[in-house]
Structures are given as C-alpha cells and as structure tokens.
Design goal:
With 222 residues, the chain is of the alpha/beta class. Helix content is 37%, strand content 16%.
Length: 222
C-alpha cells in the first residue's frame, strides 16, 4: 500500500487549467500549498504529453518541498516516468491491480467510487483511498451524477480505507458533509477559481479541520 494517511487527505486540490486567466499553473499551485493544501492531483486533458510531463516534474518538486503527496490523474505511465507519489483512476480506467503492478507497492493509488460495491472492490484490489461523489452538482464534470448524503455515508462505512468527498464542494456547503465518514474534501474551483488562492485554501482547510479533522481520532496513522 502507498503511504497515504487520513490526515494528508484533509484538503485535496485538483488542478484545472480553465481557471488560469493568463497565469501559470505552477504559481497557482504554490499559492494553494502556501494556503495549506495537503494533497495535490494534476489533472490535464488535451495537452501535448511533453508539456504535461515537464509540468508534472516541476509540480512534483514543488510538492516535495511542502511535503505534500503529488499524484497524477489517470496517466499511470506518466506517474511512473516522473516518479510521482501515485495516481488516481476512475471506474472506466485501468484496474487497481494492474496499476499496482506498474507503479509498485509504495505508490498511492486512489479510485473514484459512487457505491459501497465499487468501494469494496477498490479496497479488495489494493486501493489506498477513495474519491466519492459527486456530492453536489459540479461545473467541472458536467456528466457527473450526484449521490445522496446517505449514499456517501454508506460508501464510506463499507470500507476501512479513507475517503474524500468530491464534486461541487465550496466553503458554503462543505458543512453538509459533516458526519458522513469522509476524512477530507477534494476541490477544484473552490481553490483555483478564487481571486486569492492562498486565502481560499486556508479558509477551506480551517473549515475542513473543524468538520472532518476530529472524526477519526484514532486513525491519524497510515
């Protein structure tokens, strides 16, 4: 299993170039890390592979400086090439066992799940954590169907590996997820679309800490 503690999943940021507005992604990520992001996923679509690779190498170094896990969305080969801390795969991507064979035992593997069945299968295959959602309507993934609070809760309860909630989460609605069993939140626009990224991240982290940071007092170990 990869080295992925519940604590490290408290404020999980997923990159999105659509909010750059002429700025560099590296600078935005640095601001997010300064604000207190605890986990970073690079999500890139439709860009030349060499550009994504260079970006991944730079962001890996940056995250190492902040001692924050850095993982890549979907692209297992790229994660291996740049020695990222791990990868996140969806239900339609490569299965966890195959990913593990490529990346080895020490890397983090996250899996998207909506149901207890998907969650249990991911855990059985060796996933380190789950991304469960979408918990609210989201503009980032137009085709993502939402799940109810009860479904979120039962999915978290069905496994022993940690889970983060994802999808449409903002500083105003994250309190609705309290008590669901998640140990943190994964966000995109709630950080990267904000005018002051560092401030937005710090505010979200404070809220996440108060709603999710104390749910697992005995589980702050990998």
């Amino acid at each position: 299993m990869g080295n992925c503690s519940r604590e490290s999943l408290l404020l999980y940021a997923v990159t999105d170039r659509s909010w750059l507005a002429g700025r560099m992604l590296y600078g935005q990520v640095e601001e997010a890390l300064l604000g207190g992001v605890t986990f970073l996923q690079l999500r890139e679509k439709n860009r030349p592979r060499q550009e994504i690779r260079e970006e991944a190498v730079a962001l890996q170094r940056l995250c190492t400086r902040f001692q924050v896990p850095f993982i890549i969305n979907d692209d297992v080969e790229l994660a291996k090439e740049v020695d990222a801390d791990g990868v996140h795969v969806g239900q339609g991507d490569m299965d966890v066992r195959s990913v593990r064979q490529i990346l080895g035992p020490d890397k983090i593997i996250g899996v998207s799940a909506k149901t207890p069945h998907q969650a249990q299968l991911a855990q059985a295959q060796g996933a380190d954590y789950l991304g469960v959602g979408a918990v609210f309507q989201t503009g980032t993934k137009q085709d993502a169907s939402t799940i109810s609070y009860q479904q979120l809760k039962s999915t978290c309860a069905s496994v022993s590996i940690p889970a983060v909630a994802i999808g449409g989460i903002t500083k105003d609605n994250l309190k609705e997820l309290a008590g669901s069993g998640v140990c943190g939140i994964a966000v995109v626009s709630a950080i990267f679309a904000q005018p002051d990224i560092q401030k937005a991240a710090a505010q979200l982290k404070g809220l996440a800490q108060s709603y999710f940071g104390k749910q697992h007092p005995a589980a702050f170990h990998s």
